[in-house]
Specification:
Blueprint: E1 7-9, E2 19-23, H1 24-33, E3 41-45, E4 50-59, E5 63-74, E6 81-86, H2 90-103, E7 107-112, H3 123-140, E8 152-153, H4 154-158, E9 166-176, E10 186-189, H5 198-206, E11 210-213, H6 221-233
Parallel strand pairs: 1-3, 6-7, 6-10, 7-8, 9-10, 9-11
Antiparallel strand pairs: 2-5, 3-4, 4-5
Helix pairs in contact: 2-3, 2-6
C-alpha cells in the first residue's frame, strides 16, 4: 500500500496542530518499510475521529516531520457498534478484531463465557489486542480506534444492555438479519466456538437480546463476528 493511502497513528495529535512529528514504530515503518520521502503526502489520525492530510518536510533519523495541509475528518462515529466477543484462542481472536475494525466496529467487549477456550484476560492480552486494532485501523484507513473494554462475564454483559438501543445475538435459531435492519447504538454478541451454555443464552434473551441468523452453515466465531458487524454496518 502506498504512503498516499496508508494512515499513520499519532494519538496525541489535535485539530489545532499545523505540524506533526511522527516517531517510534510509526516513523520506522514510514522510513524503512514505505520509504517515504520529503514532499510526499501522508494521512495521520489520532484514532479519535481526527484524520489529516500532511506533506512530509523531513525524514530524520528518529522522527518524520510533516505539515498539515487539510483536515479530512474530525468527528467521532455517529453510532456506537460494540462487539461482545468471547475469549477465543489467540489467532481466532486477533482475526476477529482485525476484520471487525476494518468493517466498522467502534468498541470491543471481551466476554468470559462458560465454554471459552481461554480462561483468563490479562493486561498482556489487552495490549496485544490493542496493537492488532491499531494495525487494522491504519490498514483500512479508518480514523477511529475501537477501545478494548474490560472483560465481562455474561451477567455483567447483560447489565450493560440499557446503554444500547439494540442488542443482537448471533444464533442459528434466529431470523435472518437484513442489512440495515438494526439502527441506533447497537451491541452485537457472538458466542464461543462451542456456543453459549443454555443458562447463558437464556440470560441474554431474558435481558433483551434478539436472536439473528447469519448463515445456513456453521460459522467460526471470528467469521460470525465479521459477518454480523458487516451486516450491522451497512446502511438500510
Amino acid at each position: 500500500m502506498s504512503a498516499h493511502t496508508f494512515s499513520f497513528y499519532l494519538p496525541g495529535m489535535t485539530a489545532d496542530d499545523t505540524r506533526v512529528s511522527i516517531a517510534g514504530d510509526e516513523h520506522t515503518h514510514l522510513k524503512r518499510v514505505l520509504r517515504v520521502r520529503s514532499g510526499e503526502t501522508i494521512r495521520v489520525t489520532n484514532g479519535r475521529g481526527l484524520m489529516v492530510i500532511a506533506t512530509v518536510d523531513e525524514v530524520q533519523d528518529r522522527a518524520t516531520l510533516a505539515r498539515v495541509t487539510a483536515v479530512e475528518s474530525d468527528a467521532p462515529p455517529g453510532r456506537r457498534l460494540a462487539l461482545a466477543l468471547p475469549l477465543l484462542q489467540r489467532a481466532h481472536f486477533d482475526a476477529a478484531v482485525a476484520q471487525c475494525v476494518e468493517v466498522g466496529v467502534t468498541e470491543f467487549v471481551p466476554v468470559h463465557a462458560e465454554r471459552c477456550h481461554v480462561r483468563v484476560w490479562t493486561p498482556a492480552l489487552a495490549k496485544r489486542v490493542a496493537r492488532v486494532a491499531v494495525s487494522a485501523m491504519k490498514q483500512s484507513g479508518r480514523d477511529w480506534l475501537p477501545p478494548v473494554r474490560p472483560a465481562l462475564d455474561v451477567e455483567r454483559l447483560v447489565a450493560t444492555f440499557d446503554g444500547y438501543q439494540s442488542v443482537v445475538l448471533a444464533d442459528a435459531g434466529g431470523e435472518p438479519l437484513a442489512p440495515g435492519a438494526v439502527r441506533g447504538h447497537t451491541l452485537a454478541i457472538v458466542g464461543p466456538e462451542a456456543g453459549f451454555s443454555e443458562r447463558e443464552t437464556d440470560r441474554l434473551l431474558a435481558g433483551g437480546a434478539r436472536r439473528v441468523a447469519l448463515s445456513r452453515q456453521r460459522l467460526r466465531a471470528e467469521t460470525a463476528a465479521t459477518v454480523l458487524v458487516s451486516l450491522l454496518s451497512l446502511p438500510g
